[in-house]
């Protein structure tokens, strides 16, 4: 997506994007044995369904899609509205939607997909200070099985490395800053 980096257009688009506070995992429900890289097919399919173009020029409803070989392709800017889960405002940009090519009711994710998912999750959790319990499955919001019975939420959350989590150091830093500020105020009395 090098053509969109640092263009004035992207800068003006930015304020419309929310800071993601959730990450939702999907499968495409189409076997990755039949089609190992479904980005193009899903982009066309979603165009025919909703014609909802992203700022990056794609129609895919998700923000990212991971092929069987573990290539993640970005279709929407982080925080940009999506067409992936209509429940609980999860399409308004508050949630990053990651789809993995495959039907995980009948097959398992390829190791390369798990590695890419791990890397992408760790990157985004760190970037937006998202906690592990804000990583969710689509099936918690709908009666679909998405992302399939062969993917477990506890396993996906376990992919997050402890140093990607924000809580401890950030909170400590904040508390220290507050104390320093109070000390300064006391000195000035
Ligand atoms: Zn889904």
Number of helices: 5
Distance between the termini: 55 Å
Can you tell me the CATH topology? Answer: Lysozyme-like
> What is the class in the CATH system?
Alpha Beta
Radius of gyration over C-alpha positions, nearest whole angstrom: 19 Å
Low-pLDDT parts are 1-11
What bound compounds does this protein have? zinc ion
What does this structure look like?
It is built from five helices and five strands; from the N terminus they run αβαβββαβαα. With about 190 residues, it is of the alpha/beta class. The chain has a single domain, classed as Peptidoglycan recognition protein-like (Lysozyme-like). Strands 3-2-4-1-5 form a five-stranded mixed beta sheet. A hairpin with a 5-residue loop joins β2 and β3. The protein is elongated, with a radius of gyration of 19 Å. Zinc ion binds next to loops.
Q: What's a concise summary of this model?
A:
This protein has 189 residues and is of the alpha/beta class. It is 34% helix and 11% strand.
Annotation keywords:
189 residues, alpha/beta, Lysozyme-like, 5-stranded mixed β-sheet, 5 helices, elongated, disordered N terminus, binds zinc ion
Question: What order do the helices and strands come in, and which of them pair?
Answer:
Blueprint (H helix, E strand, L loop, with lengths): L7 H6 L8 E6 L11 H12 L13 E3 L5 E3 L20 E6 L10 H18 L6 E3 L15 H6 L8 H22 L1
Parallel strand pairs: 1-4, 1-5, 2-4
Antiparallel strand pairs: 2-3
The structure holds zinc ion.
């Amino acid at each position: 997506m090098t053509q969109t980096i640092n263009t004035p257009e992207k800068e003006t688009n930015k304020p419309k994007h929310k800071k993601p506070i959730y990450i939702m995992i999907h499968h495409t429900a189409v076997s990755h044995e039949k089609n190992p890289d479904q980005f193009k097919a899903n982009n066309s399919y979603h165009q025919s369904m909703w014609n909802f173009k992203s700022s990056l020029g794609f129609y895919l409803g998700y923000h990212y899609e991971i092929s069987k070989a573990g290539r993640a392709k970005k279709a929407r800017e982080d925080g940009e509205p999506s067409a992936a889960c209509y429940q609980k405002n999860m399409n308004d940009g508050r949630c990053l939607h990651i789809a993995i090519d495959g039907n995980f009711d009948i097959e398992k994710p390829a190791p390369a997909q798990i590695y890419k998912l791990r890397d992408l999750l760790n990157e985004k959790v760190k970037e937006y200070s998202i906690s592990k319990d804000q990583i969710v499955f689509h099936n918690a919001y709908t009666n679909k099985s998405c992302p399939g019975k062969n993917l477990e939420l506890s396993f996906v959350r376990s992919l997050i490395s402890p140093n990607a989590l924000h809580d401890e150091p950030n909170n400590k830093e904040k508390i220290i800053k507050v104390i320093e500020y109070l000390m300064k105020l006391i000195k000035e009395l």
